[in-house]
Amino acid sequence: QVQLVESGGGLVQTGGSLRLSCTSSGTIFKIETMGWYRRVPGKQRELVATADSTGTTNYADSVKGRFTISRDNAKNTVSLQMNSLKPDDTAVYYCHLREVKWPDTRAYWGKGTLVTVSS
């Protein structure tokens, strides 16, 4: 069973920075994408950033230019460097991994780490 564990969340002031990390364990056949999503209470979980095995990245418009995702394919880890944080970035951040074992795909989620940005 694949497990994802996030770390690095916490409380930061507006304009500050945090770095989230996610480690994976268990047997993984092939990873299609790894990334980060976030959820604010009462709202849907939303994509923050993803990276595929070729290094292609995808960001939500709201974080472009402020957040940077990096992935280590050898270690099956993913990180999110968050700069110029705003109160609107306050959320629980979830690590996500999509495994592909053709023709099936399977998604795994971490338990989340809370990021709080104070104004």
SSE layout and pairings?
Elements: E1 3-7, E2 10-13, E3 18-25, E4 31-39, E5 46-52, E6 57-59, E7 67-72, E8 77-82, E9 91-101, E10 104-109, E11 113-118
Parallel strand pairs: 2-11
Antiparallel strand pairs: 1-3, 3-8, 4-5, 4-9, 5-6, 7-8, 9-10, 9-11
Structure, described:
0% of the residues lie in helices and 60% in strands. The protein has strands spanning 3-7, 10-13, 18-25, 31-39, 46-52, 57-59, 67-72, 77-82, 91-101, 104-109, 113-118. A hairpin with a 4-residue loop joins strand 7 and strand 8 (77-82). The chain is elongated, with a radius of gyration of 14 Å. The mean pLDDT is 96.
How large a portion of the residues is in β-strands, by DSSP E?
A: over 45%
Largest sheet: 7 strands, mixed
Q: Please count the beta strands (DSSP E, at least 2 residues each).
A: 11
* End-to-end Cα distance: 40 Å
Give the % helix.
under 10%
Order of helices and strands: EEEEEEEEEEE
Radius of gyration from CA coordinates: 14 Å
Which ranges are low-confidence, i.e. pLDDT below 50, for 5 or more consecutive residues? Answer: none
Number of helices: 0
The structural class is: mainly beta
Mean pLDDT rating: 96
Shape: elongated
Oligomer: single chain
